[in-house]
């Protein structure tokens, strides 16, 4: 899968340049969208790390994502005490993660005294308090309700991803400020460089979380999820393990938020701290597969692909502009029923309704694919894809 | 000093008064059977010892140390193991992971696995299977293996033969007999022949109090004595 993702920008560019370019643009997510899939997918994975592996739904997880995003933007603007605007981005991500760990320990110490819906509600409560706070915190910007942007005066360059303080091992990310790369016959735009660099950070974070899940620590988390009482009777203190998982997931959520702030060079309370941000992570986890770690990334990819396909953007991509551009005028103007034309029906049912259809898909997933995309594939294969797929294909070849 | 002493233990579920003053003693190395009809408080006694359902009154001393007020994981760390009634495997973990997780912190995990595989060679063959996919007999073997590697000084075993085929019950009996050589056991068991064969002493519970106790040999030849307490 990593190889497929590594080739995606090239495949996308080839397909878009082919005779089927319009269809490819309509069906496939743009590289820019994929950058968002990566950092939000990391956030969704961090949500799954605690919620999917301990069974405690962290409904206020956006507080950590928002912490990361705000920290990076404020640090870049020189608004974080003791931190110069030129602080390496990777160091900013690390510090944002550590700040989130401290917040997670404080919230978790109180919240893990509760369970079930009460835990979900108390974590949601903490996140909403933070959301209301940043919306009114005029230290952030003149209009904190709209968030803050990285000042081009204070921090004109893009954010470096790589090894701090070694220029040759860094590339800048950002929609407009990212580096471009020309190497032999390969030419990468700023967005494509961001795709690879953000993807690299997400991959490292994923591997770290995966390593933890497959360690004895992860085994205890699974035991707690399955039977907390029994795990305690074996000698493990569930509170400590849950708190540690919460802090670790907070760290990676903040890194995801930091990547979002660094790539977009801005942060807004509604897209970082609001409870619907956690809702999107939950959606990605359920579609991708709860308790699968990688599944939420695929869930986010699925979610974003569907949203983009059903989006109302007028230039490139999306079903609505595709139909507008490609259906003959005689079909568009044809009367369907009661004066409603085909064109009118397309506008009525497709324009601005992406969330509605995503909601329907979500309901269908809950009802018919309860284990999510990756969970279902693993069930069919009888284990993780990496372990089982070669055997499965081998059997298929022999048959 | 007894290994475990229960003195006037009173335990409630909400307002329901389940244990109404249980007194019980277990010496190191003994196998003690705790018997009684359904619903008289046998499992609650085990849960009270583990502090999963802490008593409101009374004292539970383990090696002279008070357990009431401690956390369950502290009781486990002190050396009290539990093989619960429904076996409660971690069904999404493999057989091997189930054994690994039972090895106490700081102990040699590989040595623990070796101990488990030596005692139950069949488990080694299915070490990579999810515990949830095992048969009832295999699950019970795994539960006992976990008790074995837990380096417990006292093992609380709850209804190990429940729901198992006679042939498997025999295997469970043999497994427990092997464990009994290493560990003190408090055994809750409805299968009287098995319980009395394994046990050195017995207690009978009725309505939350101990109504009879003695050497297992005494009642093995006096079946009327137990029947008085155990028949419905």
From TrEMBL, chain A:
Keyword Membrane part of the UniProt annotation: yes
Spans through the membrane: 34-56, 63-83, 89-110, 117-134, 193-209, 243-261, 273-298, 354-374
Cellular-component GO terms for this entry: plasma membrane
Membrane topology: Multi-pass membrane protein
GO MF terms, alphabetically ordered: branched-chain amino acid transmembrane transporter activity
Main location: membrane
Protein name, UniProt field: Branched-chain amino acid transport system permease protein
Family annotation (InterPro entries): ABC_transp_permease, LivM-like
Entry keyword annotation includes Heme: no
Pfam families, sorted: BPD_transp_2
Location of the protein in the cell: Cell membrane
Keyword annotations of the record: Cell membrane, Membrane, Transmembrane, Transmembrane helix
Automatic annotation (TrEMBL), chain B:
InterPro entries, A to Z: AAA+_ATPase, ABC_transporter-like_ATP-bd, ABC_transporter-like_CS, BCAA_Transport_ATP-bd_LivF, P-loop_NTPase
GO MF terms held by the record: ATP binding; ATP hydrolysis activity; branched-chain amino acid transmembrane transporter activity
Biological-process GO terms, alphabetical: L-amino acid transport
CDD domains from the UniProt entry: ABC_TM1139_LivF_branched (cd03224)
A Pfam cross-reference name: ABC_tran
Keywords: Amino-acid transport, ATP-binding, Nucleotide-binding, Transport
Limits of the ABC transporter domain: 4-232
Sequence similarity: Belongs to the ABC transporter superfamily.
Name assigned to this protein: Branched-chain amino acid transport system ATP-binding protein
Species this chain originates from: Halolamina pelagica
Lineage of origin: Archaea, Methanobacteriati, Methanobacteriota, Stenosarchaea group, Halobacteria
């Amino acid at each position: 899968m990593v190889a497929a993702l590594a080739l995606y920008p090239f495949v996308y560019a080839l397909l878009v340049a082919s005779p089927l370019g319009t269809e490819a643009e309509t069906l496939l997510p743009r590289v820019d969208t994929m950058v968002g899939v990566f950092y939000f997918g990391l956030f969704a994975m961090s949500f799954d790390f605690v919620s999917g592996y301990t069974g405690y739904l962290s409904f206020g997880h956006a507080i950590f994502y928002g912490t990361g995003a705000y920290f990076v933007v404020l640090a870049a603007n020189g608004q974080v005490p003791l931190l110069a605007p030129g602080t390496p981005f990777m160091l900013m991500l690390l510090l944002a993660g550590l700040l989130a760990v401290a917040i997670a320990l404080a919230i978790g110490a109180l919240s893990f005294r509760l369970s079930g819906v009460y835990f979900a509600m108390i974590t949601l409560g903490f996140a909403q308090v933070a959301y209301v706070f940043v919306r009114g915190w005029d230290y952030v910007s003149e209009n904190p309700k709209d968030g803050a942007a990285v000042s081009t005066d204070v921090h004109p360059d893009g954010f470096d991803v790589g090894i701090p303080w070694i220029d040759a091992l860094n590339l800048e990310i950002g929609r407009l400020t990212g580096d471009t790369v020309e190497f032999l016959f390969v030419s990468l735009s700023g967005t494509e460089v961001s795709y690879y660099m953000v993807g690299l950070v997400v991959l490292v974070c994923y591997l770290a979380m995966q390593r933890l899940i497959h360690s004895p620590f992860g085994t205890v988390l699974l035991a707690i999820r399955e039977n907390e009482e029994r795990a305690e009777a074996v000698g493990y203190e569930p509170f400590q393990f849950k708190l540690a998982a919460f802090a670790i997931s907070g760290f990676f959520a903040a890194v995801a938020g930091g990547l979002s702030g660094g790539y977009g060079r801005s942060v807004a309370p509604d897209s970082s701290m609001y409870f619907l941000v956690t809702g999107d992570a939950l959606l990605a986890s359920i579609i991708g597969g709860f308790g699968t770690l990688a599944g939420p990334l695929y869930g986010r990819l699925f979610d974003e692909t569907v949203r983009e396909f059903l989006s109302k953007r007028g230039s490139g991509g999306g079903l609505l502009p595709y139909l507008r551009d490609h259906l003959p005028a005689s079909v568009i103007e044809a009367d369907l029923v009661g004066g409603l034309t085909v064109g009118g029906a397309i506008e009525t049912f497709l324009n601005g309704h992406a969330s509605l259809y995503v909601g329907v898909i979500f309901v269908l997933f809950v009802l018919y694919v309860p284990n999510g995309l990756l969970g279902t594939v693993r069930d069919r294969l009888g284990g993780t894809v990496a372990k089982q797929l070669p055997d499965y294909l081998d059997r298929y070849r022999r048959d | 000093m007894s290994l475990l002493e229960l003195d006037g233990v009173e335990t409630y579920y909400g307002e329901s008064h389940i244990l109404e003053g249980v007194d019980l003693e277990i010496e190191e190395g003994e196998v003690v059977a705790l018997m009684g009809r359904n619903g008289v408080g046998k499992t609650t006694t085990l849960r009270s010892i583990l502090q999963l359902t802490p008593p409101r009154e009374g004292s539970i001393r383990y090696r002279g140390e008070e357990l009431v007020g401690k956390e369950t994981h502290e009781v486990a760390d002190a050396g009290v193991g539990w093989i619960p009634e429904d076996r409660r495997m971690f069904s999404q973990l493999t057989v091997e992971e189930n054994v690994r997780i039972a090895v106490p912190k700081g102990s040699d995990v590989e040595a623990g696995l070796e101990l488990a595989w030596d005692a139950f060679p069949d488990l080694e063959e299915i070490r990579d299977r999810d515990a949830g996919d095992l048969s009832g007999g295999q699950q019970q073997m795994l539960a006992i293996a976990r008790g074995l590697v837990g380096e417990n000084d006292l093992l609380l075993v709850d209804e190990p033969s429940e729901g198992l085929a006679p042939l498997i019950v025999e295997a469970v009996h043999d497994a427990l007999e092997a464990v009994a050589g290493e560990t003190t056991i408090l055994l809750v068991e409805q299968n009287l022949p098995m319980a009395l064969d394994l046990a050195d002493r017995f207690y009978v519970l009725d309505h939350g109090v101990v109504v009879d106790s003695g050497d297992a040999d005494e009642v093995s030849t006096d079946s009327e004595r137990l029947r008085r307490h155990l028949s419905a």
